[in-house]
Amino acid sequence: MKIGDLAKRTGLSTHTLRYYERIGLLPYADRDRSGQRDFDASIFTWIEFLGRLKTTGMPIRDMLRYAALRDEGEATGPARRQMLEIHREQVRTQMAVLQECLLVLDTKIAGYAGGEQRTKENDARPNTSRKPLRSRSAGPVTH
Predict the structure, then answer these.
(1) What distance in Å separates the CA atoms of residue 109 and residue 123, rounded to the nearest whole number?
(2) Mean pLDDT, to the nearest integer, of 82-101?
(3) By CB neighbour count within 10 A (0-12 exposed, 13-18 middle, 19+ buried), where does 69 fall?
(4) How large is the average pLDDT for residues 92-110?
(5) What is the pTM of this model?
(6) 137: which of 2, 25, 28, 128 is 20 to 30 A away, CA to CA?
(7) From residue 51, how far is each of 56, 58, 90, 92 by CA, in Å?
């Protein structure tokens, strides 16, 4: 498969695919008679895995280390497993932090929703005690 086809099917740019090949994240592709890259379809699984590592925040240097271990074969299985276990814990920690952030956002949003309801209720009834807004020339407003 040509690099353009691989780019379309993976969503990665041809530039990214060449870069990944150059730094060692992707194995060097075979070349056809005209010297163009000819990727094997089995590369999809590896690219998808790399995408998941990237999405979960694994630095490229760690992906490179993992790829190098993978290239060394089955004997490196325990080291690769350990890398993934460490990364999994980092992802879980990040997910917990994001969950806390989401809770704060939900609380804020609910507060605004409650404020909107109070605003609608206040707008629906006449309020004769409202003070007119002060113009900027009237001086600073104190709270």
Answers:
(1) 21
(2) 98
(3) middle
(4) 96
(5) 0.71
(6) 128
(7) 9, 10, 17, 18
